[in-house]
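Before relying on records like the one below, remember that each one covers exactly one chain. Contacts with other chains, cofactors or solvent are not represented anywhere in the record.
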Amino acid sequence: MKHKISFAIVTAIAAALDLLSKHLVFRNMQSGERIVIIEGFFEFGKTTNPGIVFGLAPSASRVFLWVSILAVPVIIAIFASLKNPRWVTTTSLALILGGTIGNMVDRVGEYKAVRDFITFYYAPGKPWPLFNLADSAICVGVALLSLEMLFFDEKKKKPEEAPAPTEPMPRAEPQVNPDVQTQVQPDAPKPENPPAAS
């Protein structure tokens, strides 16, 4: 029950923070406007993306709309099928679901595309494509889930083999060499009885 509650809470927080941040930015910023947070490294912008994360595949917006819609029940079903999930599994699936919901709302809403506003520069004058908190939540969730599957999955851990029982060493039996014959000493001759005196 604790995992189900945590799953719902993390999902709701991830989706709410994403939608709230995009609402505030798009309400208060003009198209083409930039707000510099850290010069040459981090700033806010304003754009829409019909594709997927980081502006990839912009021409397949309708496909990704249906993918995001179908992904929501699939992620919930995967979590529901886990009997005793780890906390990292619960958190990662919740982040993926929350980010998926945030971007799905954009696709079916007013803009018919995902709203992006975060920009990072990985080199001077070279910005990373704009993204949003939903993209970040999905990427972090996938990374955590991958690490959990690679290093902490109990199914991939081989049980330690019990040491084989040691059998007692057989006792060595004395061996007789057939080439060596035991020599038997002949009996000493008995002395003759002296003649009786007449």
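The helical segments are 2-28, 61-81, 87-108, 133-151.
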